[in-house]
Amino acid sequence: MDDKTWLGFWVVIAGLLVLLTAYGMAIWKYSSAADASTLLAAATGTIGAVVGAFFGIQAGASGKDKAEAARDDVQKKFDRLLAVQSLPDSERQKLVQEYSRP
User: Fold this and answer.
1) Phi, psi at residue 51, to the nearest 5°?
2) What is the pTM assigned to this prediction?
3) How far apart are alpha carbons 79 and 25 in whole angstroms?
4) Which of 1, 18, 30, 61 has the fewest CB atoms within 10 Å, i.e. is most exposed?
5) How many whole angstroms separate alpha carbon 20 and alpha carbon 16?
């Protein structure tokens, strides 16, 4: 696995550990279910937002990398096409015949 995958794994584990700690504190400190759920709602919402943002940024970065790689590939093909177009007709015909063979 790559570094981003491991980092994501540890982010999720850290979030779960914080939630379990908050759950334990809520049970120990509050006798009312309403008070405990209020504490857990705040912790769950915050940690969920942070973990979600982390994975959203990772997905966006991955999409950006793929788009840039595709752009670079198209640019290379375009540059080769321009180079062929600047050749004299006889040399261009030789290249066309060479690359059109199966």
Assistant:
1) -65, -40
2) 0.51
3) 63
4) 1
5) 6
